[in-house]
Amino acid sequence: MFEVVIQFGAILAVxxxxxxxxxxxxxxxxxxxxxxGILSIFNKxxxxxxxxxxxxxxxxxxxxxxxDEVFEELFYNPFCIAxxxxxxxxxxxVIENYNKKKSSKKLKEKSSQITYKDAIxxxxxxLLAAIFPGTSRSGATILGGLLIxxxxxxxxxxxxxxxxxxxxxxxxxxxxxFGLGFTGTELIILxxxxxxxxxxxxxxxxxxxxxxxxxxxxxxxxxxxILGLIVLAYFCFIK
Length: 239
Known about the structure:
- The chain is an all-alpha fold.
- The chain has one domain (2-238).
- The protein is built from 11 helices and no strands.
- Helix 2 packs across helix 10 (184-211), helix 5 (44-75) packs parallel to helix 7 (116-131) and helix 6 runs antiparallel to helix 11 (218-238).
- The longest helix has 32 residues, at 44-75.
- The protein is globular.
Protein backbone atom coordinates (compact mmCIF):
# COMPACT_ATOMS: atom_id res chain seq x y z
CA MET A 1 0.00 0.00 0.00
CA PHE A 2 2.79 2.42 0.90
CA GLU A 3 4.69 1.76 -2.34
CA VAL A 4 1.58 2.51 -4.42
CA VAL A 5 0.16 5.46 -2.48
CA ILE A 6 3.38 7.50 -2.33
CA GLN A 7 3.35 7.55 -6.13
CA PHE A 8 0.51 10.05 -5.81
CA GLY A 9 3.37 12.53 -5.41
CA ALA A 10 4.62 11.54 -8.87
CA ILE A 11 1.14 12.21 -10.27
CA LEU A 12 1.21 15.73 -8.84
CA ALA A 13 4.61 16.25 -10.50
CA VAL A 14 3.14 15.35 -13.89
CA UNK A 15 0.17 17.66 -13.31
CA UNK A 16 2.51 20.52 -12.39
CA UNK A 17 4.83 20.08 -15.38
CA UNK A 18 2.13 19.47 -18.00
CA UNK A 19 -0.72 21.50 -16.57
CA UNK A 20 -1.26 23.65 -19.67
CA UNK A 21 -1.34 20.60 -21.94
CA UNK A 22 -3.84 18.59 -19.88
CA UNK A 23 -6.13 21.24 -18.35
CA UNK A 24 -9.34 20.81 -20.40
CA UNK A 25 -11.02 24.13 -19.60
CA UNK A 26 -10.65 27.39 -21.48
CA UNK A 27 -10.57 30.89 -19.97
CA UNK A 28 -13.58 32.20 -21.84
CA UNK A 29 -15.57 35.03 -20.30
CA UNK A 30 -19.18 34.60 -19.18
CA UNK A 31 -20.42 36.61 -22.15
CA UNK A 32 -18.61 34.34 -24.64
CA UNK A 33 -20.02 31.27 -22.90
CA UNK A 34 -23.56 32.60 -23.24
CA UNK A 35 -23.03 33.29 -26.93
CA UNK A 36 -21.35 29.99 -27.84
CA GLY A 37 -22.85 27.66 -25.25
CA ILE A 38 -21.55 25.81 -22.19
CA LEU A 39 -19.44 23.44 -24.29
CA SER A 40 -17.21 26.35 -25.28
CA ILE A 41 -15.54 26.19 -21.85
CA PHE A 42 -13.88 22.93 -22.93
CA ASN A 43 -10.76 22.71 -25.06
CA LYS A 44 -11.76 20.21 -27.74
CA UNK A 45 -8.25 18.91 -28.48
CA UNK A 46 -7.46 18.34 -24.80
CA UNK A 47 -10.80 16.63 -24.22
CA UNK A 48 -10.01 14.26 -27.10
CA UNK A 49 -6.58 13.62 -25.54
CA UNK A 50 -8.25 12.73 -22.22
CA UNK A 51 -10.65 10.39 -24.03
CA UNK A 52 -7.64 8.55 -25.48
CA UNK A 53 -5.95 8.45 -22.06
CA UNK A 54 -9.05 6.90 -20.50
CA UNK A 55 -9.30 4.37 -23.35
CA UNK A 56 -5.68 3.37 -22.69
CA UNK A 57 -6.57 2.79 -19.02
CA UNK A 58 -9.29 0.24 -19.79
CA UNK A 59 -7.17 -2.97 -20.10
CA UNK A 60 -5.27 -2.44 -16.83
CA UNK A 61 -8.35 -1.14 -15.02
CA UNK A 62 -10.46 -4.20 -15.83
CA UNK A 63 -7.86 -6.97 -15.61
CA UNK A 64 -5.84 -5.33 -12.84
CA UNK A 65 -8.81 -4.91 -10.51
CA UNK A 66 -10.12 -8.44 -11.11
CA UNK A 67 -6.81 -10.33 -10.88
CA ASP A 68 -4.48 -8.09 -8.84
CA GLU A 69 -4.01 -10.61 -6.01
CA VAL A 70 -3.65 -13.53 -8.46
CA PHE A 71 -0.84 -11.77 -10.32
CA GLU A 72 0.94 -10.97 -7.05
CA GLU A 73 0.78 -14.62 -5.99
CA LEU A 74 1.94 -16.02 -9.35
CA PHE A 75 4.54 -13.56 -10.59
CA TYR A 76 5.93 -11.60 -7.64
CA ASN A 77 9.08 -13.70 -7.28
CA PRO A 78 12.77 -13.16 -8.20
CA PHE A 79 12.70 -15.41 -11.30
CA CYS A 80 9.73 -13.64 -12.94
CA ILE A 81 11.14 -10.22 -12.08
CA ALA A 82 14.54 -11.09 -13.59
CA UNK A 83 12.89 -12.56 -16.69
CA UNK A 84 10.77 -9.42 -17.19
CA UNK A 85 13.85 -7.21 -16.80
CA UNK A 86 15.74 -9.16 -19.47
CA UNK A 87 12.87 -9.58 -21.97
CA UNK A 88 11.82 -5.94 -21.90
CA UNK A 89 15.47 -4.86 -22.01
CA UNK A 90 15.93 -6.81 -25.22
CA UNK A 91 12.65 -5.36 -26.54
CA UNK A 92 13.90 -1.80 -26.00
CA UNK A 93 17.06 -2.49 -28.00
CA VAL A 94 15.25 -4.29 -30.84
CA ILE A 95 12.56 -1.62 -31.21
CA GLU A 96 15.06 1.23 -31.07
CA ASN A 97 17.08 -0.47 -33.85
CA TYR A 98 13.88 -0.92 -35.87
CA ASN A 99 12.81 2.71 -35.45
CA LYS A 100 16.29 3.92 -36.39
CA LYS A 101 15.70 2.59 -39.90
CA LYS A 102 12.52 4.66 -40.21
CA SER A 103 12.50 8.22 -41.46
CA SER A 104 11.86 10.66 -38.59
CA LYS A 105 9.04 12.10 -40.71
CA LYS A 106 7.12 8.84 -40.32
CA LEU A 107 7.16 8.97 -36.52
CA LYS A 108 4.21 10.50 -34.69
CA GLU A 109 5.63 13.57 -32.96
CA LYS A 110 2.42 15.00 -31.43
CA SER A 111 -0.14 13.59 -29.01
CA SER A 112 -2.90 14.63 -31.44
CA GLN A 113 -1.55 12.01 -33.88
CA ILE A 114 -2.21 9.20 -31.41
CA THR A 115 -5.30 7.28 -32.48
CA TYR A 116 -7.74 5.37 -30.27
CA LYS A 117 -6.24 2.15 -31.63
CA ASP A 118 -2.80 3.37 -30.56
CA ALA A 119 -4.21 4.16 -27.11
CA ILE A 120 -5.57 0.61 -26.72
CA UNK A 121 -2.20 -0.91 -27.73
CA UNK A 122 -0.36 1.30 -25.22
CA UNK A 123 -2.96 0.30 -22.63
CA UNK A 124 -2.24 -3.38 -23.29
CA UNK A 125 1.46 -2.75 -22.68
CA UNK A 126 0.54 -1.03 -19.42
CA LEU A 127 -1.39 -4.18 -18.51
CA LEU A 128 1.81 -6.22 -19.02
CA ALA A 129 3.44 -4.05 -16.36
CA ALA A 130 0.52 -4.72 -14.02
CA ILE A 131 0.90 -8.48 -14.55
CA PHE A 132 4.68 -8.87 -14.50
CA PRO A 133 6.68 -7.08 -11.79
CA GLY A 134 10.04 -5.86 -13.00
CA THR A 135 8.46 -4.61 -16.20
CA SER A 136 7.94 -0.96 -15.11
CA ARG A 137 4.66 0.75 -16.00
CA SER A 138 6.33 3.72 -17.66
CA GLY A 139 8.89 1.52 -19.41
CA ALA A 140 6.21 -0.80 -20.79
CA THR A 141 3.98 2.01 -22.07
CA ILE A 142 6.90 3.87 -23.65
CA LEU A 143 7.89 0.60 -25.31
CA GLY A 144 4.36 0.19 -26.65
CA GLY A 145 4.43 3.75 -27.95
CA LEU A 146 7.74 3.21 -29.74
CA LEU A 147 6.44 -0.03 -31.25
CA ILE A 148 3.49 1.71 -32.93
CA UNK A 149 5.62 4.54 -34.30
CA UNK A 150 5.49 7.30 -31.69
CA UNK A 151 8.59 9.46 -31.30
CA UNK A 152 10.45 9.05 -27.99
CA UNK A 153 9.26 12.41 -26.54
CA UNK A 154 5.66 11.73 -27.60
CA UNK A 155 5.70 8.20 -26.15
CA UNK A 156 7.18 9.47 -22.87
CA UNK A 157 4.71 12.35 -22.56
CA UNK A 158 1.69 10.13 -23.23
CA UNK A 159 3.04 7.74 -20.60
CA UNK A 160 3.15 10.58 -18.08
CA UNK A 161 -0.42 11.60 -18.94
CA UNK A 162 -1.54 8.00 -18.60
CA UNK A 163 0.02 7.84 -15.13
CA UNK A 164 -2.46 10.38 -13.77
CA UNK A 165 -5.67 8.27 -13.83
CA UNK A 166 -3.75 4.98 -13.52
CA UNK A 167 -1.79 5.81 -10.37
CA UNK A 168 -4.64 7.82 -8.86
CA UNK A 169 -6.93 4.81 -9.33
CA UNK A 170 -4.33 2.36 -7.99
CA UNK A 171 -3.70 4.58 -4.94
CA UNK A 172 -7.44 4.89 -4.27
CA UNK A 173 -7.93 1.12 -4.63
CA UNK A 174 -5.12 0.35 -2.17
CA UNK A 175 -6.48 2.89 0.32
CA UNK A 176 -9.96 1.37 0.11
CA UNK A 177 -8.56 -2.15 0.68
CA PHE A 178 -6.25 -1.03 3.50
CA GLY A 179 -8.70 1.32 5.18
CA LEU A 180 -8.15 4.82 6.51
CA GLY A 181 -7.33 3.94 10.11
CA PHE A 182 -3.84 5.43 10.02
CA THR A 183 -1.94 6.46 13.12
CA GLY A 184 -0.32 9.90 13.23
CA THR A 185 3.08 8.34 12.55
CA GLU A 186 1.78 6.41 9.54
CA LEU A 187 0.25 9.58 8.06
CA ILE A 188 3.54 11.43 8.46
CA ILE A 189 5.40 8.56 6.78
CA LEU A 190 2.97 8.61 3.83
CA UNK A 191 3.22 12.40 3.49
CA UNK A 192 7.02 12.34 3.59
CA UNK A 193 7.02 9.57 0.96
CA UNK A 194 4.68 11.55 -1.31
CA UNK A 195 6.68 14.78 -0.95
CA UNK A 196 9.95 13.00 -1.78
CA UNK A 197 8.24 11.22 -4.69
CA UNK A 198 6.97 14.58 -5.98
CA UNK A 199 10.37 16.31 -5.81
CA UNK A 200 12.27 13.40 -7.36
CA UNK A 201 9.67 13.01 -10.12
CA UNK A 202 9.88 16.69 -11.10
CA UNK A 203 13.66 16.41 -11.45
CA UNK A 204 13.60 13.05 -13.25
CA UNK A 205 10.86 13.99 -15.74
CA UNK A 206 12.75 17.17 -16.70
CA UNK A 207 15.98 15.19 -17.08
CA UNK A 208 14.36 12.38 -19.07
CA UNK A 209 12.63 14.70 -21.54
CA UNK A 210 15.90 16.55 -22.11
CA UNK A 211 17.87 13.28 -22.44
CA UNK A 212 15.63 11.52 -24.98
CA UNK A 213 15.70 14.45 -27.40
CA UNK A 214 19.32 13.51 -28.15
CA UNK A 215 19.59 9.90 -26.97
CA UNK A 216 17.64 6.65 -27.32
CA UNK A 217 16.49 4.06 -24.78
CA UNK A 218 19.10 1.43 -25.67
CA UNK A 219 21.27 2.14 -22.58
CA UNK A 220 18.15 1.51 -20.48
CA UNK A 221 17.69 -1.78 -22.34
CA UNK A 222 21.27 -2.90 -21.61
CA UNK A 223 20.86 -1.85 -17.97
CA UNK A 224 17.74 -4.00 -17.64
CA UNK A 225 19.46 -7.04 -19.17
CA ILE A 226 22.49 -6.73 -16.88
CA LEU A 227 20.32 -6.19 -13.79
CA GLY A 228 18.11 -9.15 -14.73
CA LEU A 229 21.15 -11.43 -15.10
CA ILE A 230 22.49 -10.26 -11.72
CA VAL A 231 19.14 -10.99 -10.05
CA LEU A 232 19.04 -14.46 -11.65
CA ALA A 233 22.62 -15.22 -10.64
CA TYR A 234 22.05 -14.08 -7.06
CA PHE A 235 18.89 -16.06 -6.41
CA CYS A 236 19.87 -19.15 -8.44
CA PHE A 237 23.52 -19.60 -7.54
CA ILE A 238 24.45 -17.45 -4.56
CA LYS A 239 21.54 -17.17 -2.12
